[in-house]
Specification:
about 80 residues; alpha+beta
Length: about 80
């Protein structure tokens, strides 16, 4: 479960078993989690984050989208 980016209190990562899904990242902070598709950037699901945090996380992902997609492709060999 490689960490791709740490931004403030958020850790963005993916699981090795995510290979067969479209590019996405998981986000966690304490006991809260979310999953965001990368192309286009949109939330797939959330557990515990409020709307303000979701918007904040979405902006982090948009600002780092290229790096996140490159990390996905490097890890999964696409």
């Amino acid at each position: 479960m490689p960490t791709i980016l740490n931004s403030g209190p958020y850790r963005l990562f993916f699981y090795a078993s995510d290979r067969n899904e479209p590019p996405h990242v998981h986000v966690e902070r304490e006991d809260k989690t979310a999953k965001f598709w990368l192309n286009p950037v949109r939330i797939q699901g959330s557990g515990g984050f409020n709307r303000i945090e979701i918007a904040r996380i979405e902006n982090i992902i948009r600002d780092n989208k290229i790096e996140l997609i490159e990390a996905w492709n490097e890890y999964f060999g696409n």
